[in-house]
Amino acid sequence: MSTAGGIMPLWRPDGKELYFLNPAGAMMAAQVTATGSTLEPGEPVELFHTRIYGGGVDSQQARQYDVAPDGRFLINSVVDDASAPITLLQNWNPDAKQRRSR
User: Fold this and answer.
1) pLDDT given for residue 43 in this prediction
2) pLDDT in tens, 26-70
3) Cα–Cα distance, 61 to 88 (Å, whole number)
4) How far apart are CA 9 and CA 41, in angstroms?
């Protein structure tokens, strides 16, 4: 399917296209046509650049994306280092305040 290499292949839910990451980390798609028992791949096209950890060259990690039945992508992206810290609330109970005020 790929003309320049790729990893983490995944079929589109309807089986008419194959997605994969190219070595630069871009999401690629190649249409596939089935004629009898023969599969004919189309020319791969770049859909968008991803920010997946390891880009498109780290084949040792598990696939870092999935495709929903409606065709939308779910991608595990690298977070910017400059982003705000995560605040974790533990033992939060919003109903407790309502019970005390009654």
Assistant:
1) 93
2) 999 999 998 888 989 899 999 999 988 777 676 677 888 999 998
3) 27
4) 14
| Mean pLDDT in residue range 2-30 | 89
Beta bridge partners, 29, equal: 19, 45
Q: Residue 3: left (phi > 0), alpha (psi -120 to 50), or beta?
A: alpha
- HEC string for the chain: CCCCCCEEEEECCCCCEEEEECCCCEEEEEEEEEECCEEEECCCEEEEECCECCCCCCCCCCCCEEECCCCCEEECECCCCCCCCCCCCCCCCHHHHHHHHC
**91: region left, alpha or beta (phi > 0 left; psi from -120 to 50 alpha):** left
